[in-house]
């Protein structure tokens, strides 16, 4: 018998949030729903979590999200936008923030405030390191990457060594593989560059 992992929210009352074209969606009670189609207790839990993070609310407002519904939508996408098999809402509780590669990593002014930094082996992968990963995942040479990232070749090599240590890898190929595992890279992102 084959054991198929069913996404959270399809066969239970848990919720798995995800981003679809920048809009917060969720699987819940066997259906895909937009954020505001979810029961009010779930929306209240997200709002309570947002309200408990004053700096997040300020960052969202400074980024142009003025209404409470705009803030709630953006907060949900940034905090829980990655579709995985771990429920984001279970037993009446929101789970911890998850890493989501929204396509703006490394350039978003709200990074690390509204969304979470990527933690690997209890170390943060910085926005610059995410940019490095995106560049190193291409067929570009080290001199070309260094120029595009506006650093010297020596600096890039030094930063690459630190990055590889954080990821627990020893080669560029393994770094790419590990980056897919961590969802830093996704197939559409690499092919779009």
UniProtKB/TrEMBL annotation:
Coiled coil: none
Superkingdom assignment: Bacteria
Alphabetized InterPro entries for the sequence: Sig_transdc_resp-reg_C-effctor (IPR016032), Tscrpt_reg_LuxR_C (IPR000792), WH-like_DNA-bd_sf (IPR036388)
Domain (HTH luxR-type) ranges: 122-179
Transmembrane segments: none
Gene3D superfamilies referenced in this protein's UniProt entry, alphabetically: Winged helix-like DNA-binding domain superfamily/Winged helix DNA-binding domain
Protein name per UniProt: LuxR C-terminal-related transcriptional regulator
Organism: Flavobacterium sediminilitoris
């Amino acid at each position: 018998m084959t054991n198929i992992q069913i996404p959270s929210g399809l066969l239970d009352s848990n919720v798995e949030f995800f981003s679809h074209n920048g809009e917060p969606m969720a699987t819940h009670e066997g259906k895909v729903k937009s954020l505001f189609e979810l029961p009010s207790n779930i929306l209240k839990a997200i709002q309570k979590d947002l309200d408990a993070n004053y700096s997040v609310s300020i960052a969202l407002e400074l980024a142009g999200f003025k209404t409470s519904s705009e803030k709630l939508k953006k907060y949900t996408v940034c905090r829980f936008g990655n579709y995985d098999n771990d429920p984001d809402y279970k037993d009446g509780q929101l789970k911890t923030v998850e890493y989501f590669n929204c396509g703006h990593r490394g350039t978003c002014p709200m990074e690390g405030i509204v969304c979470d930094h990527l933690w690997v082996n209890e170390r943060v992968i910085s926005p610059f390191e995410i940019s490095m990963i995106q560049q190193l995942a291409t067929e570009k040479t080290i001199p070309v990457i260094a120029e595009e990232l506006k650093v010297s070749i020596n600096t890039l090599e030094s930063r690459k060594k630190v990055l590889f240590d954080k990821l627990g890898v020893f080669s560029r190929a393994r770094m790419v593989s590990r980056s897919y595992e961590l969802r830093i890279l996704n197939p559409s992102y690499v092919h779009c560059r």
